[in-house]
Design a protein that fits this description.
The protein has about 70 residues and is of the alpha+beta class. It contains 2 helices and 4 strands. The mean pLDDT is about 85.
Length: about 70
C-alpha cells in the first residue's frame, strides 16, 4: 500500500503531512507530476513532484524492494 505524498501542486505543508501519514501507517510513498504533455499542461514538467524539483531518487528504492518482496 502507498500514497502519492509528493505532488507538484501540493504545498510543502501538504507534502509533509502526507509523508508523516505514510510513516505513521508504514506505507510507501510516491510522487506524481501530473504531466500529460507539453501542449496539454505547458507549466508542468515530467517528473517534477515538488514545485520545480524532480522526484527524489529516495522514492525508488523502497518501491523496488517492495516489488521484489511480492514476486
Amino acid at each position: 500500500d502507498g500514497i502519492e505524498a509528493r505532488y507538484n501542486r501540493h504545498t510543502p505543508a501538504d507534502n509533509a503531512r502526507y509523508l508523516a501519514l505514510a510513516a505513521k501507517l508504514g506505507i510507501l510513498t510516491s510522487g506524481g507530476s501530473d504531466f500529460h504533455g507539453a501542449t496539454v499542461k505547458p507549466n508542468v514538467f515530467m517528473g517534477h513532484v515538488e514545485g520545480e524539483l524532480p522526484a527524489p531518487n529516495s522514492l525508488l528504492e523502497p518501491l523496488k524492494a517492495r516489488s521484489k518482496s511480492l514476486s
